[in-house]
């Protein structure tokens, strides 16, 4: 049981990383980013390219973060900010277009066949008494912990992070204060795409590398984000972890609904808990 | 010093302001009076760079700022306190205030924060509460205090009395008056509460349907029969 929970947390931390990216972009830029998962897939192929060139797998961690940040900046500056004035729907469709572009590029260069992505840290599972954990799972947990620590420092302790939260609260007011909205938006896209890359290379060694391998993670992350209330970073983190654990328990005890579980959960949340667990928009009276 | 020349602007195809002229000269506080829809907020939004002028210019210390971005205008010392307060409900009072000084260094912000909290002691008590948990009057104080964090030379106040109890309105207007007299901040006040606004200001303009129809010192306006009838309820001042 304890083993199931811990491994669920490891899976859940991947959902959290992806969900946080989705929520950051949605709450500050107002774009539902359907490409969060496939961005991770694309960046993982970039990491794979470097591994083929002989780079140690664990070194691809910083590579995907940097490549993701650059990609996020380019996508925001080149596409999203251009479409912002004309249409809201347009921006959403752009993210759908991105998934096709990423899948297309990858399929062109690497084909559709599943490839084997090596574990980031090789070695046998580690035993803690009766609990057995893959090194890969430990890496997921530790990385997620570090990332969320850094993220909450940025969002609550730095000027640019507080400004990002202010945009999520009231973009008009931020503009009135002269806060450079565009610069902060590009910063958020860079962070979110960096997170996408991390989630990608954490997932790849568990499954196999192929153009659609992150689609399921995107779906789970979306569930996690809804569970967390769609506009709360803390909610997205908890949503991902809770989903990971629940899913693992369900898979063990009720294997029949393993695959459909997260979809059932989305329906249930939207029906009975539309604001999610952490999704209070207004604090107190307004 | 603010000077507006032949300013024309609007939203989409609709022209809202028609060749508006306004000159601060040596006034500390200037009030623009007008009914709902007269274009007062539009005027303020154009000065702070949220709206682009179609024609005419906005001069600040002789420099044309009408093509600058909101950030650049804010850096020059023109700070806009928007109608309806627009404080950040999920941010703490302290975070709200610090964002007012976004362009200034942490050290400068720390000093200004102390000064601003001395002006608004109630905010000091609530420094770690979320903005959304403050009462309406406190939120208006916070909105003004947040504007002051930028060390403005010109404060644009859009309807600060909106939705507040009369006693709070007086308190806020006294604070504004104190700012102008003691801190040397110039204030452009846009108000429907004509009597209280004219009481604290030096100069007034009356705006009707996007045009300035009347201007003068506050005392002149208070005596003007038209103004008394339309904006002061026809009673003795």
Provide the fold topology.
The complex is a heterodimer of chains A (286) and B (237).
Chain A: H1 2-29, H2 36-52, H3 60-83, H4 88-110, E1 126-128, E2 131-133, H5 135-157, H6 159-169, H7 171-176, H8 181-203, H9 215-227, H10 233-253, H11 261-272
Antiparallel strand pairs in A: 1-2
Helix pairs in contact in A: 1-5, 1-8, 1-9, 1-10, 2-3, 2-4, 2-8, 3-8, 5-6, 6-8, 9-10, 9-11
Chain B: E1 2-11, E2 14-23, E3 29-33, H1 40-47, E4 55-60, E5 63-64, H2 70-75, E6 78-81, H3 93-100, H4 106-119, H5 121-125, H6 136-148, E7 154-158, H7 166-183, E8 186-191, H8 194-200, E9 203-208, E10 211-217, H9 218-223, H10 225-230
Parallel strand pairs in B: 3-8, 3-9, 6-7, 7-8
Antiparallel strand pairs in B: 1-2, 1-4, 4-5, 9-10
Helix pairs in contact in B: 3-6
Written description of the protein model:
- The complex is a heterodimer of chains A (286) and B (237).
- Chain A is mainly alpha-helical.
- Helix content of chain A is 70%, strand content 2%.
- Chain A has helices at 2-29, 36-52, 60-83, 88-110, 135-157, 159-169, 171-176, 181-203, 215-227, 233-253, 261-272, and strands spanning 126-128, 131-133.
- With 237 residues, chain B is an alpha/beta fold.
- Chain B has 10 helices and 10 strands.
- In chain B, the strands form 2 sheets. A 6-stranded mixed β-sheet of chain B has the order 6-7-8-3-9-10, with helices on both faces. In chain B, strands 2-1-4-5 form a 4-stranded antiparallel β-sheet, with helices on one face.
- Chain B is globular.
- The two termini of chain B are 30 Å apart.
- Chains A and B meet through α6 and α7 of A and α2 and α3 of B.
Keyphrases for this structure?
heterodimer; A: 286 residues; mainly alpha; two-stranded antiparallel ribbon; 11 helices; 70% helix; disordered C terminus; B: 237 residues; alpha/beta; globular
Outline of the structure:
Chain A is an all-alpha fold.
Kindly report the spatial arrangement of strands forming the biggest sheet of chain A. Answer: 1-2
Number of helices of chain A: 11
Helix content of chain A: over 70%
Q: Total number of helical segments of chain B?
A: 10
Structural class of chain B: alpha/beta
Which stretches of chain B of 5+ consecutive residues score pLDDT under 50? none
Question: How would a crystallographer describe the biggest sheet of chain A?
Answer: 2 strands, antiparallel
Question: How many strand elements of chain B?
Answer: 10
How do the SSEs of chain A run, as a string of H and E?
HHHHEEHHHHHHH
Strand content of chain B is 25-35%
* Total strand segments of chain A: 2
Determine Rg of chain A (CA atoms, Å).
Answer: 19 Å
**Over the alpha carbons, how many angstroms does the gyration radius of chain B reach?**
17 Å
Instruction: Give the proportion of residues in helices of chain B.
Output: 25-40%
State the end-to-end distance of chain A: 45 Å
- Which two protein chains have the largest interface (Cβ within 8 Å of the partner's Cβ), and how many residues from each? A-B, 22 and 31 residues
Question: What oligomeric arrangement do these chains adopt?
Answer: heterodimer
The dominant shape of chain A is globular
